[in-house]
Design a protein that fits this description.
The structure holds two protein chains of two kinds. Chain A is mainly alpha-helical. Chain A has a domain at 74-219: Cytochrome Bc1 Complex, Chain D, domain 2 (Orthogonal Bundle), CATH 1.10.760. Chain A has helices at residues 2-19, 88-91, 111-124, 126-129, 153-157, 160-169, 189-205, and strands at 72-73, 79-80, 93-94, 101-102, 170-171, 180-181. In chain A, the strands form three sheets. In chain A, strands 1-2 form a two-stranded antiparallel sheet. In chain A, strands 3-4 form a two-stranded antiparallel ribbon. In chain A, strands 5-6 form a two-stranded antiparallel sheet. The longest helix of chain A is centred in the first third of the chain and has 18 residues, at 2-19. In chain A, 21% of the residues are buried. The model of chain A has no long low-confidence stretch (mean pLDDT 85). Chain B is 39% helix and 0% strand. Chain B has a domain at 40-46 and 73-78 and 119-214. Chain B is mainly alpha-helical. Chain B has ten helices and no strands. Classes of the chains: A mainly alpha, B mainly alpha. Chains A and B meet through helix 1, helix 3 and strand 6 of A and helix 1, helix 2 and helix 5 of B.
């Protein structure tokens, strides 16, 4: 009987020695027995795939692909589709005037829109520009310089469309520095406008003591409708 | 014709029974412990082509998950960021670091980096990221504290039982929508799952979704 118990103990010891415990670090992928249903011959995103010449399952868009999705409805009721790439709503400016004819926020600015802008600002902008938008984001501690203060005069005087263009296409802070790269591929068009609206609200929050003459007119609150403080009067 | 079988053979049925039971118990114990994703998947930590640290980026820098995985709220899968996303910062931070050479190559040549996928559900499971993160199920529920992992490892079993735990009693697992991407969020002391969790389930109209076709088609 004793030998039997010793035998069992030794067997268990050997199994544990060979197989280890749950949660042990393993560099090898999990073993899949009969993986024919687990791994079917179908496309999964961002995986290698031998079917295509470039070996990608997620193929880059064919040149000339027309993006299809729900249109954005502007404040004036116009429907703008993403494939209208030269439309002012999608670019921030009308292309006719060599990228200088900026538009103000074309989408209806509501409280929900501003909240959305705050959320998106928190995701994509705060690491550099800081939660207050003063350019004191955390990356400043890691050798980043030249981050714009969104409360600075330059940023204040930018029109909504110009802000949108910088978010979309980026901007070099100086010829020698890398500057900010565009976020067009990461942030949706509507969300970029929401960020613009939120940045406007942020800027407005610090203009309380500013002299009226120094404040761009778009920040001046109309006497009649004080709650409509987000209306761009570009 | 006596003594054909020695006397000890009288105990043979007992020995066989006990031996069988003990062997069976050992096999069952071993299989229960080892033949499950809790053993086979948890702890998988592949070597990645770039030693990207979530602990630095999501933990110390506090980047939101969606800074890089920007499609997770809209798409069924959570995208690996494009090299462009890395280069937004690394064109000036560590811009000559040899560890980041694969990123720069990928960015310049438009070739993907061959990251190794850690969390891989079987192909017959149709897990949808956007459905979950937009309904109060946090990243941390399936991926663990990625913001504390220098190298990402498979932290949760992601077995069917694991999914069903939540699908059977969502009120114990959901959190306020604003805290979904806050991996460190813990319910406060005044949080009662039966009341607060259930209220969220009610508000977001979550159904328990226990039917097979919820996940398999």
């Amino acid at each position: 009987m004793r030998y039997v118990l010793i035998g069992i103990a030794m067997g268990a010891f050997m199994v544990v020695a060979l197989a280890g415990f749950r949660g042990d670090i393993s560099r090898k992928p999990p073993l899949e027995v009969f993986a024919d249903m687990d791994r079917q011959p179908k496309l999964r995103p961002m995986e290698p795939n031998a079917f295509f010449k470039n070996g990608l399952s997620s193929q880059p868009l064919v040149k000339g692909t027309v993006g299809r999705s729900e249109p954005l409805v502007t404040a004036s009721g116009e429907k703008v589709y993403p494939f209208q790439t030269n439309h002012a709503v999608n670019k921030g400016y009308t292309i006719a005037d060599e990228a200088t004819n900026f538009v103000s926020i074309p989408l209806p600015v509501t409280m929900g829109f501003l909240e959305r802008g705050r959320e998106r600002f928190g995701i994509s902008c705060v690491p550099c520009h800081g939660a207050q938008g003063d350019g004191n984001g955390i990356v400043g501690k890691f050798g980043f310089s030249g981050i714009r203060d969104l409360h600075g005069e330059t940023a204040l005087k930018l029109s909504d469309g110009a802000l949108f263009k910088i978010i979309s296409e980026g901007q070099k802070s100086s010829p020698t520095e890398a500057g900010m790269m565009g976020y067009a591929s990461n942030i949706d068009i509507a969300d970029r406008w929401a960020i613009v609206a939120y940045v406007r609200a942020l800027q407005l929050s610090r203009l309380g003591n500013a002299k009226k003459d120094n404040v761009p007119t778009r920040f001046l609150i109309p006497e009649k409708a004080p709650e409509a403080k987000k209306e761009g009067t570009q | 014709m006596s003594n054909v079988f020695p006397k000890w053979t009288n105990r043979l049925p007992l020995i066989a029974l006990v031996g069988g039971l003990v062997t069976g118990a050992c096999v069952i114990a071993g299989a229960t412990y080892y033949f499950t994703p809790k053993y086979s998947r948890v702890g998988y930590q592949p070597v990645q082509p770039v030693s990207f640290s979530h602990e630095i980026h999501a933990g110390q820098l506090g980047l939101d998950c969606r800074y890089c995985h920007n499609g997770v709220e809209k798409s069924w899968f959570s995208n690996i960021p494009a090299a462009e996303t890395c280069m937004r910062c690394h064109n000036s931070v560590l811009k000559d670091d040899p560890r980041l050479q694969p990123i720069r190559d990928a960015f310049e040549n438009d070739k993907p980096i061959k990251w190794v996928q850690v969390h891989k559900t079987p192909d017959y499971v149709y897990f949808n990221h956007s459905v979950h993160v937009n309904r109060g199920v946090s990243c941390v529920k399936c991926h663990g504290r990625v913001d504390q992992m220098d190298e990402v490892k498979h932290a949760k079993p992601l077995s069917m039982a694991f999914c069903l735990d939540c699908h059977r009693s969502p009120h114990e697992h959901v959190r306020p929508q604003s805290e979904v991407f806050n991996l460190g969020w813990e319910p406060g002391e005044d949080w009662v799952a039966e009341r607060d969790g259930a209220a969220l389930v009610n508000k977001m109209k979550l159904r328990t979704s226990e039917s097979c076709s919820a996940c398999h088609r």
